[in-house]
Structure formats: structure tokens, C-alpha cells
């Protein structure tokens, strides 16, 4: 297993992607450059990607300072990323890959990401992967000048840290510190739990009495509840039975009311129809009465007309008789004037009118004679010559004229009499059958009217009776509805009481089994139970649960006490065991280290001896570490008595001895040779060559002789202020 590449991007002074490749044939790689160019930043990158989180070890104020902060010419970056790639052909890393890449990335916001072969993971996964490979925490894969200074320090605790890391007892110390903290916590918990036990025990005594009262209260309350629920169920049953009867009666009453209403409506409709028929009958009677009156008027008019015609006929017949008698008298007179025996017309008796006419004629003749004489006419009109004849003729003519008139009158009267007789026949009085039929029809309608009025009265009386019955039914319905409302109110009261006191609905009540047999006894027991409940009050009903909980808590506390006592003893035993393991491991490591250190010391000092021992009279894990050396040909000396170069070389010997005890696939040496002179540098470089046979060595140095042994050199330069770049040179390929 060896390191193949180290890639940096955005880490400290390396903003650009920088890849440092390590050839497996180049066992020693040198990193060189002037002070301040960023050589040690490469070492910090290795520390960081391997899991270092201590800003002091990374030489920064805070972890976000490892991100490239920018320069006057370049902007700051938002992330830093370092990747180490290993050749795992030997399978030393416990993953099924021949090449393993470990990458760590951090952002300026503070988030970090970890990857193994591009698969995101946790920091713990990386640390677990590197366990037992010599690259984990506390290993000597990275040796700095500070570790050399710590070995050379006169302070025993600083020197001791180096050897404890080599011995690997830090894990024991860490576990011991953790165990001691747990022990302190256990002791504190024991005190607290004991106090808590006393408190809970005292409280438990009070709760026990409260729980007893609460149990009695609950028992009585449950009994009262059972009785009240049973009584309520019984009352509800009777109420439901009563409600059913009321509902049935109400349904029947409503049905009867509907029937009465229907009958009333039917009778009202029948009465309305009869009234309509009555109006029709009245109308028909009025029509028939009008027809009867008209018929009576017609008969009366016909009778009067007949009487008038008969009277006219009688008068005309009488007049005809008179005229007929007159014509007979005139005929006799005419015959008398025409008879020869009658010589004197004066003897003929004329009517007074005829005599008047004759006299008028004579006067007319006399007038005419006078008129003629007035006009000079000498004609003398005289009736004297034929006066008798003229008189006879005149009388005859007058009689004939009068007779003609009388005959004409008779003819006229006969015509009138005939016409009147025809009119009399035409206006003959008809029979009274129509009048009788109208009278009979009116009588029938009047009978129907009386019958209809009687039926209307009967229907109206029936309707009034049905209306009264309907009002009575409505009153019964209202009474039943009030009774039902009362029943519902009783049910509601029972339901509200059950819900308020027992959180039980009426529907839930139906599912409850059990019912009281004796109502009076149940009520008495309920009253007694409630009286006892009032005596027990106030009651802490939570005391039962709290008592059980406190009892369980006390049991748990007692178990905790037992566990804590056992844990305390276990922790004490663990601390003793850890101390023993740490002491054993430390002593074994120190013995092994002393032997190896003596060998390495002899190589670096061309002979001589060295030993590492613990100060006597002190526990092994607390004793100071004493380092004594005896260079070739000299006496045993402590480190402070050596020269500066000898002390540094001695410290280097110790560090290489530690690496032999805890080997690593590669080793970074950061200016470890800074204090060595030319003579010691040769021995230092020789041991580096020997050591590189089994471990990759990467040295950061300013020493030319150290550079000379390197197979490959990377130069770090800072062409632009604040920005580092790497230049490589493979010296193994350069001819000697």
C-alpha cells in the first residue's frame, strides 16, 4: 500500500487544481521551496483529509480559513477540496478495490462532505477505514519540528504525550476519562436517585390513602352510574312505550281529522253543488214564470181582442140591419115615385134630408137667376114649369143616390162583418195546455227547490257538525302533540343527564345491558351512594393512576439504584482495568522502544548506547520519562547535557524508533533536519534511505544533502502573491 497522488483545489494557497504524484519507485520524495511559499500547506492538506479537525494543528484560526481567501488579483473561492489516492493492491485497506481515493470537501457556509471512491460517506467512515493501517489518529505518519521540540522539552508532560501516542494508550486514557466522567455522573445520579426515592416514597404514602379513597369513590360512583343507567333505561323504556302509544293515538287522530276534513270538504262541495243547482232552479223558475206571465198576457190580449172584434161585429151587424131597413124604405119610396099612379111628387114622402136638399136646390136656382141678371143676362131660370116633374125626378135621383150609398154602406158593412168574423176566427182563444204545463213545470221546480234547500240545510248542518268534530280532533291532536313534546322533553332530560354525568348518549343506552328490577329500591340506593360520594369529596381521581405510576416509578428508581450501584462498581473496575491495560501496554511499549531506540541511536551516533526509562517511585502512567544516552566513548548523559545538534539527532532517533513500533505506509517529515549540522545530516540521510525500504518518505526540507537523497522533488513556488504552484523533478531518472 502506498500513496499514489495528492490533489488539492482551493485549499489554503492552492486555488487551482494541483496534483502531486508519487511514483512507487521513488521511495523518497522531497518538497522544497522558500519560506512562506506554502510547503507546509501540503502537509496540512494531508492532515485535514485524514480527519484532522483541530484548527491549531492545521495552523488556522477556524476551519473556514483553510478555503482560499483570495488575493489582490484573484477572488476568494467558496470551497476547498483535497483527495488522497492509495494503491490498495495488497488489500491493506478493508475495501474490495485496488485503488482507494479519500476526498474531503468543505464549503464556506460550514458544510463538509466526505467521499470514499466518489461515494459520499461520513468522517467516521474514513477514520474507521484507516484504523490499524498506521494512518489513523495518533500515528507518526506525519512528523513535524514540533514533535522534535516536544521530545527535547524539559517538561515531562509534553515529552510524555509523544510516548503515550507511540504506546497507543491514548485510547485507554480516553476511555478512562469517559469512564471517570460516567462514574462522576453515576455518583451524582445515585445521590439524585436516592433523594428522588425518598421523595417518591413519602409521596407514595400520601397517594396510597388518596388512591384508596379514590377507588372507593369510583366503586360507589360506578355502582350509582350502573343504577342510574339501569333506572334511566327502565324510565326510557316506559317513556318510549308511552311515546309509541301517543304516536299511535296521534296518527289515528290525524287520520280521523283528515277523514273529517275530507268529509267536510266533500259535504261542502256537495252543498256548493246543490246551491249551484238551486240557483239554476231559481233561474228556471224565473224563466218559466216570465213565460207564464207572457202566456197570460197573450191570453188576456187575445180575449180583449176577441171582445173588441165581437163588439165591433155586433155594432156593425146592428148597423147593417139599420142600413138594410133604410135600403128597404128607400126602395119602397123609389117604387112609389116611379109608379104612374103617383102624380104629385109632393105626395111622396121624402126624408127630411131630401126635403132640405130640394129646398137648397130651389135656393140655388134663384141665386143663379140673380147672378145672370147682374151680368145683364135676361135669362130667367125658373123651376115652376116642370117643377113637379123636376121635383119628382130630383127626389127620385136623390133617393137613388141615397139608396146607392146605403147599398154601398151595406156592402162595406158586410165586408167588415166578414173581416171581423175572420179576425174572430183567427183570434180564437187557444186552450190552456201550455199555461198548465208551465204552471206544472214551475210547481215541479218549486218542489225541487224546496227539496234542494232541505238538502243544502242538511249538508250545511252536517258540515257544521263535521267542522265541530274536526275542531275537537284538532284539540285532541294538539293535546297529544303537547304530551309527545313532554315525553320528548323527558327523554331529552334523561339524555342530557346521561351525557353530562356519564358521557353516554341515548343510542349508547340501548346497547347497555342490565335494567333495575325495583325502581324504588334503585332510587334509594342511588341517594345513599350519592350521599357517600359527597362525604368522600373532594377526591383526587388521578391518585389511583398516579399511585400506580409512582409505585412503578419507585420500582424503577430502585432498579436504577441497583443498576447505578452496579454501573459504579463496573466503572470503577473498568477504570482499574484500563489503568492496568494502559500501564501494561505502556511498559511493554517503553521496553520495546528502549531497545529499538538504542539500535537507532547507535546508527546515528556511530555507536553508543541509549535507553528510555521511567522515573522510579512513581506509578508507570504518571512517572516522568527519562532519556539517557551514552555516545560512543562517553559516559551516560541526560539530554539536556548534549549539544543542540546531538539533542536533535537523538530526538530523530526516538521518532524513527516510534515509526518502527507503529509503522505507516508513508511518512511526512516536516523540516525535522533543520537543527542538524553537516556531520549529522549524513547519518540522518543514511537512516532515511534505510527506512524508505519499507515506507514512503516525503520530506519537506531546506537542506541540500537531504534533497540529494530524494528520488523525486517537488518545488513549491509562489509566482503570484498568495498563490502556490508545484513543479516536479524526477531525480531518479537523471544520470549520476
UniProtKB/TrEMBL annotation:
PANTHER family: STRUCTURAL MAINTENANCE OF CHROMOSOMES PROTEIN 3. This is RecF/RecN/SMC N-terminal domain-containing protein. Transmembrane segments: none annotated. Pfam families: SMC_N. Keywords: Coiled coil. Residues 2-724 form the RecF/RecN/SMC N-terminal domain. InterPro entries: P-loop_NTPase, RecF/RecN/SMC_N. Residues 236-319, 391-469, 554-584 form a coiled coil. It comes from candidate division WOR-1 bacterium RIFOXYC12_FULL_54_18. It comes from the Bacteria.
